[in-house]
Design a protein that fits this description.
Blueprint lengths: L2 E5 L5 E6 L2 H28 L7 H25 L5 H6 L1 E5 L7 H9 L1 H7 L3 H9 L6 H6 L1 E8 L3 H4 L20 H17 L2 H15 L9 H20 L5
Antiparallel strand pairs: 1-2, 2-4, 3-4
């Protein structure tokens, strides 16, 4: 079973199962099916107009709209649906950057541009071969953009998302985390789990805002809300663990 380990900037390792060829293929077929349905609907709409397809203007408008949807469907979906098209969402897979972050617009555009190589010029063969033989099941567009497709449910158990320092070498970032309760930490963990399952950033943002206000702390530069919550959890775990250790008399 192929996995990819993402190490966040806060030294949290998260294992994801890489989306297999079958899942990618089914997601692609679903998306193609959606485009076919849109083509049929466009044909029906065009035929139902007063002049039908006898109007050059009607034909130009319908063809232009469909071509725009056909060309930009994948790019628009991935940018606005957090790395997923409708087919990917149904198959519960998504695009992720190899550094663990959400892909940038530039990465999405590279993946999209290289569809010409992966699908159009090679009649899909390039994408099929590269996904089958590459270590992380990447098509050429993924290799160039530094992305891959993963299953949205991480293999790493939530408990393992909490950083466990080796030989007490870890230095907590937020000592104020000890002001939280076990219940607070459990709720934060649920928020993190929900994010990895659904990609819901709204609940992450609102929870992080409440924790910042409660503890009167400000995240470090470059630390997003998700990493902030994960860091608070691991700081809490580390500090509480140290407080429970017996002291030498």
């Amino acid at each position: 079973m192929q996995t990819v380990r993402i190490t966040t900037s806060q030294n949290i390792d998260i294992d994801y199962e890489v989306a297999g060829f079958g899942e990618r293929l089914l997601a692609r077929l679903i998306d193609v099916g959606i485009l076919v349905v849109l083509l049929i609907l466009g044909t029906i709409i065009g035929a139902s107009t007063p002049e039908g397809f006898r109007s050059t203007v009607t034909i130009i408008i319908l063809v232009s709209v469909y071509l725009a949807v056909f060309v930009f469907y994948d790019l628009a979906c991935e940018v606005f649906m957090n790395g997923q098209s409708i087919g990917k969402r149904i198959m519960k897979i998504k695009v992720i950057s190899l550094d663990g972050a959400r892909p940038s617009l530039g990465q999405y555009m590279l993946r999209w541009l290289f569809r010409i190589v992966d699908f159009t010029l090679s009649s899909q063969l390039c994408a099929i071969i590269s996904v089958l033989v590459s270590e992380k099941h990447q098509r050429v567009g993924d290799m160039v953009a530094g992305t891959t497709l993963i299953k949205t449910q991480p293999r790493t158990l939530l408990n393992n998302l909490v950083f466990r320092p080796v030989e007490d070498e870890y230095t907590p970032v937020f000592y104020e985390a000890t002001q939280l309760s076990d219940r607070d930490i459990t709720l934060i963990q649920e928020v993190v789990r929900n994010y990895f399952q659904t990609g819901n950033t709204v609940v992450v943002y609102s929870t992080a805002a409440k924790i910042k206000e409660l503890l009167s702390i400000k995240p470090l530069d470059g630390m997003d809300d998700l990493l902030f919550l994960q860091t608070v959890v691991k700081d809490y775990t580390h500090l509480i663990t140290l407080s429970d250790l017996p002291t030498n008399s």
